Each structure stands twice: as structure tokens, then as C-alpha cells.
Amino acid sequence: MQARLLSRDDLDHGPLSVLSDSEEKHSSSHICNYTYNGTGKEFRASLHKGTDSSVEVCFISWNTTKISSNSSKEFNCQGDRHKNKVIFSLWNMNANQTDIYFCKIEVMYPPPYVYNEKSNGTVIHVKEPQSAFPLWILATVIGIFALYSLLITAYFPLRYMVFVPSSFLRLCLLYSSLTH
């Protein structure tokens, strides 16, 4: 009888997770459910990033007496083992960590080595933090410039209109006296 390992990726947000500023420190939980009908004694679960799963984000391994886990330097990740599932918690994520994430469950011992097929994965999209520049400041600055423009447009032509006709009149009189 051959042992089979079946797994499924779940995320507490669904198949697409969008992390924004309002979520505490850009955190997400990735749940890897699995069923195994064999007699494995040593297991390893890992979370991978990218369509080709080339980046191992973190892992947890366990046997009947010991549990160990590790995370890559670029990620804050921790794996927790539960009955028939492993929960990977990610926190302090940034925008360049936006990608698709996959679970990999392996039976390390006893032979034969068994691992799950690639699942559909979960897309995690981390939004860049928005500028903290308040909108009311921008509106106030625009309002001040609009008022200034209105004053320049309305006040100065009225002020100089008094002098322009009299100056124009003087020029006309001077011209007419020179031509006659």
C-alpha cells in the first residue's frame, strides 16, 4: 500500500489576500491542511514564494520527540503544527513580498519519501503605505493660491485702468499735436 499525502492551501483571507496599512504590521496567516494515510514519523512543512516556488520563506519540521522551525532572513515567519494542518504566520511584510505562496508538506522518514503535489497557492498583495500628508493641507494651499489669483486678476487691472486711459489720452493728444 502506497502512502498518499494530500494538501490544500488556505488563507484566513481567502485565495487572494490584500494587506493594507490598516492591518497590523502587514500580517497574514497561511494554513496548510494535509491528510496522510501512511506511517510517517518525521515530517517537514514549508512555505514557498513565487510561481516556481524558488524561495523558501520558512519551514517547520517535526518527529515524535522534537519540533524545529526556521525562517529566511527576508521574512518574518513562524510555522505552528496542529492536527492535520500547519499554520504559517507572516508579519511585517512589505510591498516587494507581494507574490503567490505555496505550501509543501513532506514525509521525511521512514522511506519512501513522499511530498504533496503543487497546490493552487494563495496570492498575497501587500499595499505600499499611503502618504501621511493630510488632504486638508493640500486643499488649504490650493484655496490660498486660488484667492491670490482672483485678487491679482480682479484688483490690479481695476487699479491701473484709471491710469491707462489718462496716459492713453495724453499719448493721443501728443500724437495729434505732432501730426498737425
From TrEMBL:
<keyword id="KW-0472">Membrane</keyword>
<dbReference type="InterPro" id="IPR013783">
    <property type="entry name" value="Ig-like_fold"/>
</dbReference>
<protein>
    <submittedName>
        <fullName>CD28 molecule</fullName>
    </submittedName>
</protein>
<keyword id="KW-0393">Immunoglobulin domain</keyword>
<dbReference type="Pfam" id="PF15910">
    <property type="entry name" value="V-set_2"/>
</dbReference>
<feature type="domain" description="Immunoglobulin V-set">
    <location>
        <begin position="35"/>
        <end position="128"/>
    </location>
</feature>
<dbReference type="GO" id="GO:0042102">
    <property type="term" value="P:positive regulation of T cell proliferation"/>
</dbReference>
<keyword id="KW-1015">Disulfide bond</keyword>
<keyword id="KW-0812">Transmembrane</keyword>
<dbReference type="InterPro" id="IPR013106">
    <property type="entry name" value="Ig_V-set"/>
</dbReference>
<dbReference type="InterPro" id="IPR040216">
    <property type="entry name" value="CTLA4/CD28"/>
</dbReference>
<feature type="transmembrane region" description="Helical">
    <location>
        <begin position="135"/>
        <end position="154"/>
    </location>
</feature>
<keyword id="KW-0325">Glycoprotein</keyword>
<dbReference type="GO" id="GO:0031295">
    <property type="term" value="P:T cell costimulation"/>
</dbReference>
<keyword id="KW-1133">Transmembrane helix</keyword>
<dbReference type="GO" id="GO:0050852">
    <property type="term" value="P:T cell receptor signaling pathway"/>
</dbReference>
<keyword id="KW-0732">Signal</keyword>
<dbReference type="InterPro" id="IPR036179">
    <property type="entry name" value="Ig-like_dom_sf"/>
</dbReference>
<dbReference type="GO" id="GO:0042110">
    <property type="term" value="P:T cell activation"/>
</dbReference>
<dbReference type="GO" id="GO:0009897">
    <property type="term" value="C:external side of plasma membrane"/>
</dbReference>
